[in-house]
User: Which sequence fits this backbone?
C-alpha cells in the first residue's frame, strides 16, 4: 500500500449517522493531517495530530493515531449533508524536511439528507 | 481569519507558453509549498521553500519549474514551457510550524 492510503474509497451514509474513514501509512511520521476537499475546490485543513498524540477532537471531528499500526482514523459524528466531500490524510514524514506532505487517494463521503 | 490566496483561479494557455501562478501565503508563515492535483488523482508535492531558497523538491519539479518570493508577500510558481501534462490544479500552501494551510488553487489548462 502507498503512504497515506485511505479506506474506504467511498462512503455513503444518511444524515445524522457517523462516518469513519481510515488512513494507513508506511514510514515514521512527525504528524498526520486531515483535509477536506469539496468537488473541484481547495483543501481545507481539518485537524493535525502529532506522532506523540493518540487522539484529538475538534467539534464533531475525532481523530485517532496508532503509530504502532501506522494508521489513523477520522470520525465525523452526527453527519450533515454539508459534510459531503472528499477527505484526505496527509503525512509529514520524519525522513523529509520542512513539512513536505504526502497525500493519500482520499475517501469520497456522501451524506444523504 | 487569515488565509492563503491564489491568482488566477483559472489559467488557460497554449502548449509551450510560460505561465506564472501567484500566491499570497499567510503573513506570519515562514514555510511555503506548491502542490498539484491532476484531475481524479491525489495531491502531489512539488516544492517547499524556506528562508528564500528551495528546501526540497520532487521529481516532478524539473528545470521547467521555478519558484520565487519576489517580495515580502508573494510566492510564485513559474512553468517555463508548458506541456499538456502540466494541466492540473495547482495549490499553494504555507505553514508557521506544523499545520499547512492551502489556497483555493489555480486550475491550469494547457491546450
Assistant:
Amino acid at each position: 500500500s502507498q503512504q497515506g492510503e485511505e479506506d474506504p474509497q467511498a462512503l455513503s451514509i444518511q444524515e445524522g449517522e457517523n462516518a469513519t474513514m481510515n488512513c494507513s501509512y508506511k514510514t515514521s511520521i512527525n504528524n498526520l493531517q486531515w483535509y477536506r476537499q469539496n468537488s473541484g475546490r481547495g483543501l481545507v485543513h481539518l485537524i493535525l495530530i502529532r506522532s506523540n498524540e493518540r487522539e484529538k477532537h475538534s467539534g464533531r471531528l475525532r481523530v485517532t493515531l496508532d503509530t504502532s499500526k501506522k494508521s489513523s482514523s477520522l470520525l465525523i459524528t452526527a453527519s450533515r449533508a454539508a459534510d459531503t466531500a472528499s477527505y484526505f490524510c496527509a503525512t509529514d514524514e520524519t525522513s523529509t524536511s520542512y513539512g513536505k506532505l504526502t497525500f493519500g487517494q482520499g475517501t469520497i463521503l456522501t451524506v444523504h439528507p | 481569519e487569515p488565509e492563503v490566496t491564489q491568482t488566477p483561479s483559472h489559467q488557460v494557455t497554449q502548449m509551450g507558453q510560460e505561465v506564472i501562478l501567484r500566491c499570497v501565503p499567510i503573513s506570519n508563515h515562514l514555510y511555503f509549498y506548491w502542490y498539484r492535483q491532476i484531475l481524479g488523482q491525489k495531491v502531489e508535492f512539488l516544492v517547499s521553500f524556506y528562508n528564500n531558497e528551495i528546501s526540497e523538491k520532487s521529481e516532478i519539479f524539473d528545470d521547467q519549474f521555478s519558484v520565487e518570493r519576489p517580495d515580502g508577500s508573494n510566492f510564485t510558481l513559474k512553468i517555463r514551457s508548458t506541456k499538456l501534462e502540466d494541466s492540473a490544479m495547482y495549490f499553494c500552501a504555507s505553514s508557521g510550524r506544523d499545520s499547512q494551510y492551502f489556497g483555493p488553487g489555480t486550475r491550469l489548462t494547457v491546450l
Notes: Chain B has a mean pLDDT of 94. Residues 5-96 of chain B form a domain with the Immunoglobulin-like fold (CATH 2.60.40.10). The CA atoms of residues 11 and 108 of chain B lie 5 Å apart.
